[in-house]
Sequence to fold (825 residues):
Amino acid sequence: MKEFKKIYYSVLSIAGIILFWQVLSGFDLINSNLIPPPTKVYLAIIEWAKSGELFIDFSTSIWRGITGLLIGSIIGIMLGLFTGRNQTLDKILTPVLNVFKAFPPVALLPVFITFFGIGDFSKVFSISFATIFPLWVNTHLGASTVPAEFIRSAMLLSKSGVKIFFKIIIPASMNSIIAGFRISIAISFIMLYVSELAGASSGLGYQISSSHLAYRMDKMLGALIVLGLTASMIDLIFNKIVKYFFPWVQLNKII
Amino acid sequence: MSEYSISVKNLSVAYGSFSVIEDVSFDIRNAEFIAIIGKSGTGKTTLLNALAGFIKCNGDVNITDCIGFCFQNHSLFYWMTVAENIGFGLNNMNNTDKKHTVNEILKKIDLFEYGNKYPKELSGGQMQRVALGRAIAYNPDVLLLDEPFSSLDIFTRDQMMDWLIKLISELKITVVMVTHYLDEALVLADRIFVLKEKRISNVVNVPFAKPRTQAIRYTEQFQKSKQELSDLLN
Amino acid sequence: MKKIKFLSTIKYVIVFAMIAMLCISCVNKSKTVTQKLTIGIQNSPSNSLVIIAANKGFFDTTKVKVVIKEFSAGKLALQALLGQAGDLDIAVSAETPVTLSTLGGNKIKVIATIVNAKNECRVVVRKDGVLNTPEKYFSKPRKLATSQGGSPEWFTYNFIKRFKLDNNNVEINAMLPENMPIALSNGAIDAISIFDPYAGLGEKELGENGVTFNNENIISYYVLNVKESTITQKGEALEELMNGLLKAEEFIKNNAEETKKIIAEKTKLDIDILNKTWSHYTFAVMLDKSLIDLCIAEANWAIETGKYPKETVIPNFKEVIYPDILKKVAPTAVNF
Fold:
């Protein structure tokens, strides 16, 4: 019932926004060349789907985004566990990582192009780079603040450092890791869009840009909506995965 | 085999230049129940942590490697079920034996139907029982309890005391318990160490024969002993 | 007594009249108020008329104050013009973005062209042995970068068509012009199809390892775009602007070397590249029928390549042209 109510309110609010938008267009309260009405956007999405390009753009972006996100996440989590639990590694790595963290990934795109070209590798690399740092910071925070009593209990119960690391440290850090992951999902989509501006022939970001340049604002908005829905869908799937595998994680407390 | 489970000589603990415990020495016999009492900040928990090896200390501490510890706030691993918490310390066991042992412990702590629940689904008293169950699951030689009932309400605390009396009488292991409830110390312990001004100022032999029940709390002798303890603390 | 009173009254009337005349003359003066025109340009040689006019003070009149805003591409200036913020009065862009935006339903007016450029767009490729013609070079799969939504994309389409290249061998990648020279030199892409200065920079990066393919048939115009409301509200100012551009046209004709120095300094472009490419540009303020023909051809291209649905009606581009302002200041420059 609770789940149904949630869906009901979500659908209601989205429908409300679409209706409001249609009314504004209908009464010419917004420039329909710049912001076409929802009906036109819907038709543009249909046109895009019928041409077969929607599937290509969607699947290209999904694979780039998710691959980049996963690679960046694994690296970020590993780094966070190392620096969060080992003082020596923390002293060595944290200053360097803090410098890299400050680089705006968007500004580094020309560097990535120089070294890696404009193919998928470059895009996946740039997405990975951007998603490492939220996960590193959050994992570090989680790993370094595992209550001492958990560690002490675990050390009495098991002499295996590996067992303690995987069964105690990582699960105890999971709330922070999940929070970092959700931030990284959002960042990966931003970086996906940006990377597809810097040399692409397909993808949702590419479609947004090329439609905009062709003054197809209806198609551009359609592509934006598809990008937004894709990001939401991934976040939703991620929440389901978290709920299944890590039922103790307090998702409702992580925005 | 030694008659003493724990032997401590000239134990001192300091955090930097700040000394918490100075020159503490004692021996605890096998299957003895020791209560450590003292006002807040006298170093009771520090002494227990030093025995467990959690903190650095000076002096000699001879204690078995096989220690069970129960923290003040249970410290259950919230990402594991009750059964998984209890089974965590059961190393070198095959799955069948592990399952059997966990079930036995669950029966002992009266939580047999709660094996698949997560800690957040339990009450305070239930969580403390699981913590104790986890601590005794692998048959430790010594059980260290750090104010195990302080976070519980008075009714639950009384229930837990009854339950602990029964459990300890079955297990026959050495127990060192830190508490600031004099009733608990007198009902459960064989001897009481009074910690005052960084040292053990007094060692009190509890005059009541075992097995004990909580009914003794209402006897005149109990109240007299409690008063004496209180005077020692002050 | 009555006489003194009368004289006193006259004195007051005269003083009052003088004050009134002074006020009126001030009001009249403010009626010849200077109107501000903000013009968005791409900082490139194709905008030399605007750059020279500003540099030489040809815009400095009492009727107009011209402020220049720079963009990395003319199409971005056009987008700013069409935006709600009202940042620009005029945008200078190639005709391709004009065609696309008109197809998209936007209402703009073209009041003049300021340059036509032949060979401004070129395809610069990384050399591959003896594959030194477009047909040979693109006989195998290549990555080509171009700038979408503008003349380079139109040029690329025509290039492929003219040399009958297999579309499967030309993977077109959208890329920002400023990223193209480096991407080309480090092998991220095989070819770029772009205007100057980026084409020239690409040629410089590659040196002997590069080959340039031209398509001299393709002309691009750079046009002055305005909103209809600007014509109504700032018509006089637009005339002044036009006069300034005409003076700049004359200056450039007679002072090519000095012009190139000014442009090189303004655009930070290498003077050698500028010398090499200068002959591509014909700087003239004019309006010609060929602009309309070009827009129609580009509209068909946009529909053919799927930018717009097949059912899209090609607008009447004649209505996009507004010749009256140029006719007023230089009637012989209007040619349709």
Residues 53-85 of chain A form the longest helix (33 residues). Residues 1-30 of chain A form one domain.
